[in-house]
């Protein structure tokens, strides 16, 4: 008689609750990237403000990449703003080229509590604020795959509902009437271009219906 075998349970790998060297290096790289970016961005914003130039992200991306020696993207700035919203503001702006094409740009500024030009103590304070926030984040999120989230980018509504715009816009009476007349003309043209419904019933039935309508009109 064969002795009964002990029941075998499926092996389940233990949940990874420790940081490997790879995890540590990734976190260190993410931390240093954001710290380098904050330092570079502060300098760029200050410099452009001194020359009365707005800091639009697409105009400074290459400068940030060269100064940090990292592949900086707008996502990195969104990570900083998630941790430290008191450092920067990010605003969507509408840009138009000579052909009238509209594109979306992002304006980066210091928050109102920081005065330009930043003093040395202000730069150090900003560095300490970010460093402390990053340290606290990874302390609160000890999972190995933890990464700093991003804020949601502000967006422009580049597709405008013309009818809604006409209702809300403060237009002179003459201009409003002219626009309304154009809209009515367009609607009439659309109606004319619509395919006419196909007649139903036999020719005899349609002729009888026509005679009935004519008789009704003449009555």
From TrEMBL:
Region (Disordered): 186-206
Domain CDT1 Geminin-binding: 30-124
Biased composition (Basic and acidic residues): 186-196
Coiled coil: none
Any matching Pfam family: CDT1
Protein name: CDT1 Geminin-binding domain-containing protein
Organism: Mucor circinelloides f. lusitanicus
């Amino acid at each position: 008689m064969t002795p009964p075998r002990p029941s075998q349970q499926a092996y389940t790998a233990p949940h990874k609750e420790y940081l490997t060297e790879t995890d540590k290096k990734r976190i260190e790289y993410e931390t240093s990237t954001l710290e380098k970016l904050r330092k570079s961005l502060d300098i760029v914003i200050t410099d452009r403000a001194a020359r009365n130039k707005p800091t639009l992200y697409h105009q400074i991306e290459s400068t940030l990449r060269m100064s940090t020696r990292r592949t900086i993207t707008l996502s990195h700035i969104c990570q900083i703003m998630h941790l430290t919203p008191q450092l920067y503001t990010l605003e969507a702006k509408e840009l138009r080229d000579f052909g009238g094409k509209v594109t979306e740009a992002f304006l980066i500024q210091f928050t109102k509590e920081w005065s330009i030009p930043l003093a040395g103590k202000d730069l150090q304070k900003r560095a300490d604020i970010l460093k402390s926030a990053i340290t606290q984040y990874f302390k609160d999120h000890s999972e190995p795959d933890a990464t700093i989230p991003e804020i949601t980018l502000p967006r422009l509504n580049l597709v405008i509902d013309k009818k809604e715009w006409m209702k809300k816009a403060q237009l002179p009476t003459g201009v409003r009437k002219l626009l309304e007349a154009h809209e009515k003309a367009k609607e009439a043209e659309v109606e004319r271009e619509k395919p006419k419904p196909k007649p139903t019933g036999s020719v005899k039935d349609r002729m009888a219906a026509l005679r009935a309508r004519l008789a009704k009109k003449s009555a």
